Amino acid sequence: MQRLLRSLVPAALALLLAPATGHAASPAPAPHLLSTLPLGGAGGWDYLSFDAPHRHLFVSRGDRVLVIDVDRNRQIATLADTPGVHGIAIADDLGRGFTSNGANASVTEFDLRTFKPLATIVGTGEKPDAIVYDEPSHHVLTFNGRGHSASVIDPAKGAVVATIALPGKPEFAVSDGAGHVYNNIEDTSELVEIDTASNKLLHTWSLAPCESPSGLAIDTRHHRLFSVCDNRLMVVTDALDGHPVARVPIGDGPDAVVFDAADSTIYSANGESGTITAVHQDDADHYRVSATIPTRVSARTLALDPQLHRLYLSAAQFRHHRPAEWPARHRA
Fold first, then answer.
1. Which of 41, 46, 45, 73 is CA-nearest to residue 57?
2. Residue 1 lies inside a defined structural domain of this protein
3. How many structural domains does the chain have?
């Protein structure tokens, strides 16, 4: 994930994304900004994660995680002592959450209702970044940026139970909920598939002409994966056999992407453009840009509220002006 400049003040932005009405004579309302919630304090940010059953948004903030009650639009808790935190995985069936702590190769397990830490699990690969929960195996996987590996954690044992070598530096990861986890490999522009029953790397697929893939989302119904790339492309891949399906233009500096199954739309957060590209899925094999939504320069990570069709983004408010040296792409 990108580093942030020290002169930035983060804020959480909420966008309402209305689904299409389905009537040609009544176009869907344009997406618009609902509210801005200042977060304050030192530190940059990384992944956002949404706990839909509890209606909580988790925002990583350098050495802690902020918990936002989205219905009351306010912060209700802080998870402290998560050094170098990148991502937050939600395991609602276990009532647990897990943070990837990049600074000390550990994972913090916490209670989803009380937000109290329950355990610190050590021994992941170097610099755990993306983190995902796989419900079929009840395992948590961290994707380790410097370790070029995935660490498999069994929460019942509170320990790393397997390490999976990867062909390069991993980025975002998603689970299909059926025993497979997918991950973008940034420096080789590849996509990998992991079998979570055997903890084996099953396939490695090229994403060419994608450059430096970061964000990854999945449509489990149609078995489609959506990778966003530095060269202003979103690449659609068949999750069953890895064949390329489509390429769609997006904005500059994409980092996160989500899929809203209710309105068949993929949303790419483009931090350098200060936009979201909305891509409509006409069917499993055909995609088109349906809207370009202004946000804020640096708004590059996002999470979806699938119930209300809202996007939440972390962004920066520049104290004076956007620095000329704003980095094109810097990975932590």
1. 73
2. no
3. 1
Q: Is residue 311 part of a domain?
A: yes
Tell me the residue range of the domain where 124 lies. Answer: 8-318
H-helix or E-strand spanning residue 281: strand 275-283
20 versus 160: the higher-pLDDT residue is 160
User: Distance between CA 284 and CA 306 in Å, rounded?
Assistant: 20
Query: Which of 20, 18, 19 is closest to 32 using CA atoms?
Result: 18
Residues 279 and 259: their CA atoms lie apart, in Å, by 9
User: How far is residue 27's CA from residue 316's CA, in Å, rounded to a whole number?
Assistant: 32
pTM more than 0.85: yes
Long-range (24+ apart) CB contacts under 8 A made by 45-48 are 45/4, 45/10, 45/301, 45/314, 46/1, 46/85, 46/86, 46/87, 46/301, 46/332, 47/1, 47/86, 47/87, 47/88, 47/130, 47/256, 47/301, 48/256, 48/301, 48/302, 48/303, 48/312, 48/313, 48/314
Residue 127 and residue 145: Cα distance in Å, rounded?
A: 5
More confident: 39 or 266:
266
Contact between 182 and 162 (Cβ < 8 Å)? no
Q: Whose CA is closest to 183, among 152, 161, 155, 154?
A: 152
What does the radius of gyration of the chain's CA atoms come to, in whole angstroms? 18
Judge whether 202 lies within some domain: yes
Does some domain include residue 331? Answer: no
pLDDT beyond 80 at 252:
yes
Q: What is the CATH number of the domain that holds 177?
A: 2.130.10.10
The model's confidence at residue 203, banded by pLDDT at 50, 70 and 90, is very high
| pLDDT tens column, 28-40 | 666 767 777 878 7
CB-CB neighbours of 263 under 10 Å: 17
Q: How far apart are CA 278 and CA 275, in angstroms?
A: 10
Between CA 121 and CA 144 the distance in angstroms is 14
